[in-house]
């Protein structure tokens, strides 16, 4: 690093760079800073549970929420899977979430422009996208409808 | 070799007074950068441009992803 040859003794490199910063949904400055990213319109508190959470508890959680699924995370909030409401109906209430979990659901980077993501979801007939950091930590859930409501084009 | 750090370590260093330098070209810096960062494009990094940095404080450099 040239700074070290110029006499700077304490130089560090943020290896993830700007892409990683944005992917963590952190603030930014500049001409494009006002462009909405997926993370700007995400719900940061979707229903979550652990692998060993009883399905009866997951069911209660979903009954109090507008979501049709519960995200399974570990203690570091790393996304492990998803439990759909429809999968709980016929399952044993004492069974753990893991027993009906869909492992590794598709995720999207928080730095995806919101408009682009909304169009992609609409094309696939989907309404939400799960946002994670590059290391898989759950950041939230993007709702296509939120962007459309903001534009005044809600269906 | 500079120490490689992640976003958590970056936050800690910034809180401790580190200086942040984006080494991308000026246009890319103008579009978007990390709050508080100054711009010294890699191609113009020399003793003169580095003179705006405080040699007694840590310096963290970053690019778009990996340098």
Written description of the protein model:
The complex is a heterodimer of chains A (155) and B (67). By secondary structure, chain A is of the alpha/beta class. Chain A has one domain: CBS-domain. Helix content of chain A is 27%, strand content 23%. Chain A has six helices and nine strands. Chain A has helices at residues 2-5, 17-23, 55-63, 85-88, 114-123, 144-151, and strands at residues 11-14, 42-43, 48-49, 69-73, 79-84, 102-103, 107-109, 128-132, 138-143. In chain A, strands 2-9-8-7 form a four-stranded mixed beta sheet. A four-stranded mixed beta sheet of chain A has the order 3-4-5-6. The longest helix of chain A has 10 residues, at 114-123. The radius of gyration of chain A is 19 Å and the shape is flat. The termini of chain A are far apart. The mean pLDDT of chain A is 90. Chain B has 67 residues and is α/β, with parallel strands linked by helices. Chain B has three helices and four strands. Chain B has a three-stranded parallel beta sheet with strand order 3-2-4, with helices on one face. The model of chain B has no long low-confidence stretch (mean pLDDT 93). The chains are: A alpha/beta (155), B alpha/beta (67). Strand 1 (11-14) of chain A pairs parallel with strand 1 of chain B, so a sheet runs across the interface.
């Amino acid at each position: 690093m040239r700074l070290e040859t110029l006499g700077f003794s304490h130089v560090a490199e943020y290896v993830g760079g700007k892409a990683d910063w944005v992917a963590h949904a952190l603030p930014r400055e500049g001409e494009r800073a006002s462009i909405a990213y997926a993370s700007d319109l995400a719900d940061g508190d979707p229903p979550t549970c652990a692998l060993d959470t009883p399905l009866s508890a997951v069911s209660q959680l979903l009954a109090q929420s507008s979501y049709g699924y519960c995200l399974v995370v570990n203690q570091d909030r790393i996304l492990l899977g998803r439990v759909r409401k429809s999968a709980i109906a016929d399952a044993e209430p004492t069974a753990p979430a893991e027993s009906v979990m869909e492992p590794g659901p598709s995720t999207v980077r928080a730095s995806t422009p919101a408009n682009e993501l909304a169009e992609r979801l609409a094309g696939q007939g989907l309404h939400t996208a799960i946002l994670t950091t590059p290391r898989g930590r759950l950041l939230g859930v993007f709702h296509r409808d939120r962007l459309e409501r903001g534009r005044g084009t809600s269906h | 070799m500079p120490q490689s750090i992640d976003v958590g370590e970056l936050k800690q260093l910034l809180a401790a007074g580190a200086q942040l330098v984006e080494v991308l070209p000026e246009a890319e810096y103008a579009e978007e950068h990390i709050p508080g960062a100054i711009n010294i494009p890699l191609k113009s990094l020399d003793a003169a441009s580095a003179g705006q940095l405080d040699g007694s404080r840590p310096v963290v450099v970053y690019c778009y992803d990996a340098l």
